[in-house]
Specification:
There is one protein chain. The protein is of the alpha/beta class. The chain is 60% helix and 10% strand. Strands 1, 2, 3, 4, 5, 6, 7, 10 and 11 form a 9-stranded mixed sheet that branches. The protein has a two-stranded antiparallel sheet with strand order 8-9. Strand 2, helix 3 and strand 3 form a beta-alpha-beta unit. Helix 7 packs parallel to helix 9 and helix 31 runs antiparallel to helix 32. The longest helix has 38 residues. The protein is elongated. The chain starts with a strand and ends with a helix.
């Protein structure tokens, strides 16, 4: 009895996927009489052993560097009414429509059936595939055969039927399998170059050589080859050569030549509408060229066409579709484009379309921003509960991103709205929300104060650092909850707080004014750390700055006195202290010791400033005071000189030369080179 179906395969070293391939064919083989024909071209692995477990029709032929010739060898063995062509690294999925077709009289109306091949490029990414609708099932009429040495072309008679819902998973183009890709590159590239020597104007071969180079990541060569193919196109463009334009788009896109991508896309659209990849790559190019409105239009056209794809009857079997799995990427890009153009409602509509965890996480800052700017605090809390609850996103990452977006928006009412939505979180962030709400209402409740007392401040997550801001603002004694910590930690926390809260320098100044006295190492350390931060932040007027600077120097020196041996301070042992700040404080300590000796005092101020330039304003205030004090003393001395010389002059006029001479001699010991004194002395001598 003649089989209804002959399954024809040519294989070589296909052990990795062959068993899955053959198992996927079993439902068809069980549905009607069929035969499985496998031609091996020199396998060195377990391919033949696996094949013989499924069929006794295993044949051996040597490889002749021509794919079509070998396909035709497999066809020569076939006896069935229909022939299915499949490779050993392909797995048939959803074969039921195909089975139904072969069991129905409808099969007599057609000469071939096309279905989808999904070329998987990354096993870890379900969206990493290209798609091609191609002819795989053929009527065995004695005419059907293949031509072309590389990408063999089926030659057949009769009508064609498309069944895109039937598909093959093809594992022969895994970019992660470097050995496989290198083997295919060497084999295919060599054959294509050989064919081009025979036929140098063959557009198809130049294009396929470009594809081969691109798969090998040799994009310079890929561009050169497809540009050669493009130069050979007839002046009147037709859809028959759309595959060249699509390859040009791909390689130009990879090389960042977005203007060229846009030009080729426009050319393709002028030839024929409806190609999925053209819309996608045109949209992407326009986005990268910052033509956002056009990018939005073509992303939306891409998505509309994608939605129609499964029900579309007409397929271009010459085209590989690279963007069939890019729906989530398109929505992700649209979200960002709408946000960029402040079309927040449209951007939020795209958020609802994101279903893959990867794209949700990548867009988390945008998603949070949209909820905040649209004042959708309850919905944002629902997002938090969903994604943190499902462990798709860590609590810390979500809350940290939320604080970053709050900072970007910079609206206190938004911050308050978030606090009200998130205050029920039974952790540190819930405490921060309580502080935000109560601060807005003008008080800190007893319950919140008790909660604060139970917190170890130096172990707070960074996104909860705002707790410190409100404790400072409400003058909560920090030494009761901050005990063992590194100053670097407190500095980093205060820097973070300053980015997210306004007026921190003034808050620190008022806090330090509230707690003036310090006597322990911890108190000195905390005082100098807070004062240093207030000074470096800026924003204080001269009076507040000077008071804070004095506190910083006082607590800093007090800290050094308790931490180091007296000799370190007395002998200014700058190499024995741990950083430039402490060197600054050593010099300030010495400056204080020499405060009555202006020259030494100023020298130590200069050394201090060299050690810690960040304190320039404070040192300049001290230097200004020295200068002012010196000016006052000079004015006082000038007055003294005038008074003494007036007295001497009166004594001379009164004839009291001896008294005048005594006073003048004393004056000359204090003031030298005074011309008026010389004249007075002359008057005395003349008398």
């Amino acid at each position: 009895m003649k089989p209804r179906l002959s399954i024809c395969m040519m294989v070589k070293n296909e052990e990795k996927y062959l068993e899955r391939c053959l198992a996927s064919l079993q439902s068809m083989r069980d549905a009607f009489p069929s035969e499985l024909i496998i031609v091996d071209t020199g396998s060195e692995d377990a391919t033949v052993e696996i094949a013989k477990r499924f069929t006794d029709k295993v044949y051996f032929h040597s490889w002749q560097n021509n794919f079509s010739d070998m396909r035709n060898v497999t066809i020569d063995y076939a006896r069935g009414e229909w022939i299915l062509i499949i490779d050993g690294d392909e797995v048939l999925c959803n074969p039921q429509p195909l089975i139904g077709f072969l069991q129905s009289p409808q099969r007599k109306q057609y000469g071939t059936v096309a279905f989808t091949t999904k070329n998987i490029t990354d096993l870890d990414d379900p969206r990493a595939y290209t798609s091609l609708v191609g002819f795989r099932l053929f009527k065995h009429d004695g005419y059907f055969h293949y031509e072309g040495s590389v990408h063999n072309q089926p030659i057949f008679k009769g009508g064609a039927l498309a069944m895109p819902e039937v598909y093959l998973l093809h594992y022969g183009y895994l970019s992660t399998d470097t050995e496989l890709m290198e083997r295919k590159f060497q084999r295919t590239g060599a054959i294509l170059k050989q064919e081009l020597e025979k036929d140098p104007d063959n557009i198809y071969y130049w294009n396929q050589l470009s594809v081969t180079y691109a798969m090998h990541n040799d994009y310079k060569e890929a561009v050169e080859c497809v540009e050669k193919a493009y130069s050979l196109l007839p002046e009147k463009r037709t859809p028959n050569y759309m595959f060249v334009l699509l390859q040009l788009m791909l390689v130009y896109q990879h090389e960042g030549q977005y203007e060229k991508v846009a030009d080729i896309c426009r050319e393709a659209l002028a030839i024929k509408d409806g190609y999925l990849d053209v819309y996608y790559y045109y949209a992407e190019a326009q986005a990268l060229l910052k033509n956002y409105s056009d990018a939005v239009i073509y992303y939306e056209k891409y998505l509309a066409l994608l939605a129609q794809r499964e029900v579309q009857d007409e397929k271009d079997v010459s085209i590989i579709e690279y963007t069939l799995g890019y729906e989530q990427i398109a929505y992700s890009n649209l979200l960002r484009l709408h946000k960029e153009q402040k079309e927040y409602q449209k951007a939020m509509a795209c958020v609802d379309k994101l279903t893959y965890k990867e794209y949700v996480i990548n867009n988390l800052p945008n998603i949070i921003y949209l909820h905040l700017v649209l004042r959708q605090y309850g919905a944002l809390r629902a997002w938090y509960d969903r994604w943190v609850g499902e462990k798709a996103q860590s609590e810390g990452d979500f809350l940290f991103q939320m604080m970053q977006q709050l900072r970007e928006i910079g609206d206190e009412q938004v911050k308050l709205g978030v606090a009200q939505a998130f205050r029920s979180i039974d952790r540190e962030y819930g405490l921060l929300c309580d502080l935000i709400i109560e601060d807005n209402e003008g008080y800190i409740s007893e319950r919140t104060q008790q909660a604060v007392a139970a917190v170890k401040l130096d172990s707070l997550p960074v996104y909860c650092s705002g707790v410190l801001y409100y404790l400072l603002k409400w003058h909560h004694p920090l030494e009761t909850i901050i005990r063992d910590y590194k100053e670097e930690w407190l500095t980093c926390v205060l820097e973070y707080v300053n980015k997210h809260y306004t007026g921190l320098a003034k808050v620190l100044y008022l806090y330090l004014a509230k707690y003036e006295s310090a006597s322990s190492i911890r108190e000195y350390k905390l005082g100098k750390s807070l004062a240093r931060c207030a000074l470096l932040l800026g924003g204080l007027d001269d009076d507040a700055y000077r008071q804070t600077f004095d506190r910083y120097v006082r607590d800093g020196i007090g800290y050094l006195n308790l931490v180091y041996q007296p000799a370190v301070l007395a002998e200014i042992m700058t190499f024995e202290v741990k950083n430039d700040e402490e060197i600054f404080l050593l010099y300030m300590c010495s400056a204080q010791r020499y405060s009555k000796q202006q020259k030494e005092y100023v020298r130590f101020l200069r050394l201090a400033l060299q050690a810690f330039p960040g304190m320039k304003r404070g040192v300049e205030l001290l230097a200004k005071e020295v200068k002012s004090e010196s000016s006052e003393k000079q004015q006082e001395f000038e007055g003294y000189k005038k008074q003494v010389k007036a007295t001497i002059s009166q004594l001379i006029e009164s004839g009291k030369m001896s008294e005048a001479k005594d006073i003048l001699d004393q004056y000359k010991t204090l003031v030298s080179n005074d011309l008026e004194a010389v004249l007075l002395e002359s008057r005395i001598l003349l008398n």
